[in-house]
Every structure is written in C-alpha cells, then in structure tokens.
Amino acid sequence: MRVFLIIGPIVLALFLLWLWIERWHLILPGTWPALKWLGLKRTLTGGLHGLWYGRHITSYLNFLRAMARIFGPEGRYARWLENSYHGKVLTHEHARSIVSVEEDIPLQDLGVGVIPYSRARDIVINAPPDIVITQCGCKELHRLKGNPCKLCDPPYMTCMLIGKPLTDFLLEHKPRHSERISNERALELLDSFHEAGLVHHAWFKDCIKDQFYVICNCCSCCCLGFEMKELGIEQLAPSGYLAVVDRDLCCGCKEASTWCPVDAITIVDGKSEVLKNLCIGCGICVSKCPQGARILAPDKRKGLPLDVRTLTDKAEDKEVAEGRIQS
Fold first, then answer.
1. pLDDT tens figures, 19-72
2. Residue range 208-232, pLDDT digits in tens
C-alpha cells in the first residue's frame, strides 16, 4: 500500500503528461511512426525531451536559455549544448538547394569540416523533400516576454521542418501553427525571409537521431543560436564563406552594416570593412548593398559549406570505393 501511494501519483502524473503531449488522445497516428523511427534506445535516452521540444517548443527553449545563463559558457552544460544541438549557417543559394532536392541524399556523416562538432552531423533527405512550415519558437518566446521580433510579424511561421515522419508528427501535435507546403512555396518563402534579413540555418539535434531536420530562418534579436553566441556558447557554425568588399565600388553608405546580424561590418577611411573574425558568411549584406560592392568568397577558416548538391555524388563515389556498386 505504501509503495502504491508513492508510485501511484508519479504514474498518474506521467500519464497526464503523455495525454497532454498527445493532445488528449491516447496516441496520435503520427506518434508511433516517429517513435519507431527513433528506436527504443533513442526514445528512452533522448526521445522524451524531443517530444517536449516538438509539443511545446517555447518552454523547452526557455529552459535551455535559463540553464545557459545559470551555468555560463564554461563547463559540461555549454559543451553538451554545443555538441548536441547546433546550426550551420546557409547561404541563400544553399538553403534553396535543400528544399529543391531532386535526388535522394543517402544517410551520411557530413564530417567536422562542415559541422565542427563531435556529434549530430548526419544528413539524409528523400526527394522530393516533405516540408512543413511552422512557428518559430524563439520569436514566439520573445513575443510572450514582450520583445517581439524586429524583422517579421506574428505568427512567425519561419521554420521549415524537412522529412517524414517528423513532418507528420508536427502537423498532428501543432495543427494551429503548422502547414504542409509545396517545394515551390518553400522557395518563395526562403526568398521572402532572405529579403527580410533573416539568416538561414540548418539545424541538427541529438534527439533527432543526430540528424539535420529543419531550416530555421533566424533573427539576431530573438533566436537561440545568436543569443548563445553572445553568451560565449558556440552553437552556430559559419557557412564556409566570408563577405568581401570591393573598395572601388563601395561608397561607405553603411546600408549593409545596418543589416548584419553579428555586427561584423565597420567603416574604415570612408569604406566598408568586414571583421573577419565575426563574419558568419550568411550573405545578407551582399543582397542589401546598394552598390553591388560585396560578394561571398570561400574561406577555409570558416569551415566547409553545406551544399547538398555535392552529397549524392560523394555518396556514390564512396559506395564505388567500397565495392557496393559498380562504377
């Protein structure tokens, strides 16, 4: 009896929590495929906090932020956050190439050159990618705290989840703020996000089988990666490019500097100059420069780009080398 009095309330609380996650159903149709995809071990070790993330992302992100501020940039929590949950900055061209993939990208580790972390570096995309646009938890969290996004308006539908079964899971668990869209619509939205000054990020997460799963279109005023960067927690990897200024074309108007999300632009002797150690290679300044005086140039110090157009060829070359297919 005493054991029941202790365990009973715990079991009841867990059951009610499960019903809340499942929107007061015993189990929604999309939940079982998602759990099966994760596997039993991943579900028990990381999938449960993934359910929290998928069902109520604002409270999840608020918790991560609070822990980061408590523990700071040094120590285990910061390293865990960096290595288990991180984003790769994408140029506009590379973001567009993900949503318009026409050939399957088999499961592969992108390596530390592209994703400079110890884990959560895998990518797999089935063509054509299934895409769901959903509300940005970072922007919504800031709105709830009285600090709305400076670059876009509610309901902040700026995150693109890529691939089943996660897209089906999200549609069922967040039906008010999720919508399946075509590849053509995804391209249109990416163009509008870029025009608004939002930075494309490919995000990877441990509880999502250490894989890429979403393109977030981020602002420096709200989004987790930028906030962690200010705290000294490196959750964002640069695109692999660096903005370069043609001083002959630059008129020093400062227009591009007003758009830079990381304050990597200054004026020296009346000309724009890029602070190389700060630039993340997002390309926002390139499109905003009225003189056309800026380009993105590859820079090995910024890592390698995430260009999915090269991944199918690499995968085939690897299979040929290993003798799995004939050349």
1. 777 777 788 888 888 888 888 777 777 667 777 787 788 999 999 999 999 999
2. 899 999 999 999 999 999 999 999 9
Task: Give the lowest-confidence range in 4-13, 148-157, 208-217, 287-296.
Answer: 4-13
Q: How far is CA 17 from the centre of its chain?
A: 27
Q: Cα 38 to the chain's mean position, in Å?
A: 19
First and final CA of the chain: distance in angstroms? Answer: 69
Q: Which two tokens stand for residue 95?
A: 């973001």
Beta-strand runs (E) in 35-156: 85-90, 105-109, 122-125, 131-135
**Which of 162, 156, 146, 255 lies closest to 202, judged by CA?**
162
| 85 conformational bin, left if phi > 0, alpha if psi -120 to 50, beta if neither | beta
Q: Name beta bridge partners: 109.
A: 122
- Amino acid at site 197: G
Single pTM value for the model? 0.90
Q: Say which residue the tokens 């190389």 belong to.
A: 276
Contacts of 39 (CB under 8 A, 6+ apart): none
| Helices and strands, counts by H and E, the chain | 13, 13
CA-CA distance, 164 to 312, in Å (whole number)? 20
- Length of the chain as a residue count: 327
Which ranges of 72-109 would DSSP assign to H, the alpha helix? 76-84, 92-99
Q: Once rounded to an integer, what is the mean pLDDT over residues 271-282?
A: 96
Residue type, 190: L
Span 252-281, average pLDDT: 95
Q: Check whether the bond before 155 is cis (ω within 30° of 0).
A: yes
All domains of the chain in start order, with CATH = 2-239+306-317 (no CATH), 241-298 (3.30.70.20)
How far is residue 223's CA from residue 217's CA, in Å, rounded to a whole number? 9
